[in-house]
Amino acid sequence: MRGEPFRGAPRTRKRPAPLRAGRAARGRRGLARNGKGIAVSEKLYVLGHPVSHSKSPVMYNAVYEKAGLPWHYGLMDVPTAPEAEAFLAARDFLSINITTPYKPEAFAAADVRAASATLAHGANVLVNKDGALIAYNTDGQGCVAYLERAGVDFRGASVVVCGTGPTSLSILHAVAQAGPDEVILIGRDKAKARNVMRTYADELGAMVGRVVDMPAFKEGHLSFSEVYKQVGFKFGSYATSRQAIAGADIIIDATPLGMKAADPAPFDTALLSADQTVFDVVYGHGETALARAARAAGCRFFDGAGMLVGQAVVTVGILRDITGEAALDIPEDELFALMAQAAGFNLA
Description:
Elements: E1 6-7, E2 42-48, H1 56-67, E3 71-77, H2 81-90, E4 95-98, H3 103-109, E5 112-114, H4 115-120, E6 125-129, E7 132-136, H5 139-149, E8 158-162, H6 166-177, E9 182-187, H7 190-210, H8 224-230, E10 232-237, H9 242-247, E11 250-253, E12 277-280, H10 289-296, E13 300-302, H11 305-323, H12 332-343
Parallel strand pairs: 2-3, 2-4, 5-7, 8-9, 8-11, 9-10, 11-12, 12-13
Antiparallel strand pairs: 1-5, 4-6, 6-7
InterPro entries: Aminoacid_DH-like_N_sf, NAD(P)-bd_dom_sf, Shikimate_DH-bd_N, Shikimate_DH_fam
GO cellular component, one term: cytosol
Organism: Adlercreutzia equolifaciens subsp. celatus DSM 18785
């Protein structure tokens, strides 16, 4: 993701004190090197709750080891929002990935927000550039990149996205850029889905209207302006959108349902049929109710493991661009294979 534009006015914050020789300023992180030009240790994390199941540390640490960087990526499992906010305020990290439930808190903590975070109303990546936090949301790009890698074609398709949170919106926008005929946002409450979709459309329209058209992230995808003009956006609830679910070519469940063993699928799975592709963002928690039903119906099914790797590949690219660290200039296919192997995922 080279050169993704920042959107929205940066929040006004008290800037960190100037860095004094021989001392590290609190909250001031970024690419650091010693007097010989060698990179020094940096701290990176995945922030969320729970995160004990996360494969992010083994994936990212494999990349930093290959790149020869003395960076360490660890878990930051905090049970409450105030604790998460305190961690974010300290800014004692080079970069973090953010998972459920703290994407809105990460978005609020940012000084500058890329378009991907603005449209999603949540950040899953924060990079600390000289004390300023830059927010991104790579969930959508990671999801679409993985599914296209696996042979899923969004062009001309009817796509249902379940959920109304930041992950859902990030995926909705990335799916729209992949060229479907329509994208339908579905949640438990139709009025909320309507408001979320309307806000997304309004913000996308404002971006299209006030800046030079933002190009697609991938060749063959749509620009922001093309998305706004060409893709049909709809909304509904699980109860009122049964026909849309049954008629969809691709169904993406971007809700956290399935992280607990007793969680149901978000909609009536009797609507599924063998000609559909179903994707569930959840991974690592056993077979979800949706996964079980999709496989029983003969659907082509994918879980969230590939999306995790896909968004991690995008994140490494962001770190490369912001830090200027040439050692991270690793081809995307090589990065994907390395990180999938480190996580123990069979995504061939």
